[in-house]
Write a structure and sequence with these properties.
alpha+beta; YaeB-like fold; 2 helices; globular
């Protein structure tokens, strides 16, 4: 299993999404955090689970309405962004 490093901007994304969800539902925010933990676990176990993007470097894992964008390095994965898939990138 490869460790997952989370870029600072991805942490900012995570905080912003969680705060937004928390503004209307504590349960939904908790569910999102649980789902995020599951995504990290899936990435550790299956690093190439996401769809390879045309740039041939980044991969995208879609879970519900969120896109988890990451790069597979030789010794780890770098989670670079967490975006709302309903918005343009």
């Amino acid at each position: 299993m490869k460790p997952v490093h989370i870029a600072e901007i991805a942490i900012d994304d995570l905080v912003a999404i969680t705060q937004y969800i928390l503004s209307y539902s504590t349960k939904a925010a908790g569910d999102f955090v649980d789902a995020f933990d599951k995504v990290l676990d899936d990435l550790r176990r299956f690093p190439e689970i996401g769809t390879l993007e045309p740039d041939a470097e980044t991969r995208v894992l879609r879970r519900d309405k969120y896109l988890f964008i990451y790069i597979v390095e030789s010794d780890h994965l770098e989670l670079t962004r967490i975006l709302d898939g309903r918005r343009r990138r």
